[in-house]
Amino acid sequence: MRASPRLSIQSFWGGTGLSKSTFAERLRKLLFGKAPLRSTCQTKVIDIQSDPNFALHVLQKISLESATKARDNRLDAHINRDFITKLSQNGSYFLSQIVHDIDKLRKVDWTVELDPFWRDQAANHRSLYSFLYDAKSREAEVLNFALNYFENMVQCAFQTEAAYSRIFYAKFHMQRGVRDPIEREKILLGCAESFEKFKKTIAKEHATKAVKELHWQLMGIRHWVWDCPNAKRIYSRILA
Fold it and tell me: Mean pLDDT over residues 136-149, rounded?
């Protein structure tokens, strides 16, 4: 069976005959009416126009964390309360989505709680950004900066989940089919080596959260190894 073509915002807009800004405004009103701006995966309302402090805090935090954190100081200068309160209506809507999703994804355990939804969410944000902004502007530059950070965050989250999956399957195999303590230690050594490689590949701005959560899972497999003098000697910092 052939898969149906994937529809996009652009395909809907193309048949309306409206200007892009008019269509975007009507789409926003159709979806959200006059209610405060909400995220599609909402747990709370973020109205950044009436209370810009939360959005300002998140933007400033990611500016400090990001490896590409706008070495151009002009961009850092734009991230202030005055900039947020003067965003266009579409910009306020878009930023409220990004800020909420960044905050929510930070509170999710990337090893056992990650949902495939987040990849779709990042793709949807990118599609909406491409639709709303087709020319360079101060607003577009800052929002793209926040979106790039979120996309990188999603990528690191799935990287962490993949590393956890390798540890989980090793633990599953050990618990059910390995009784020899030497063989168990070999499995633990393999997981520790995988963990060390992961630490070198994960993006620095998300390493603290990712490494901490994955290390917790690594210690879960350590519990099933009766004694591991060689592993503790080789990886003394993570297994001692």
Answer: 85
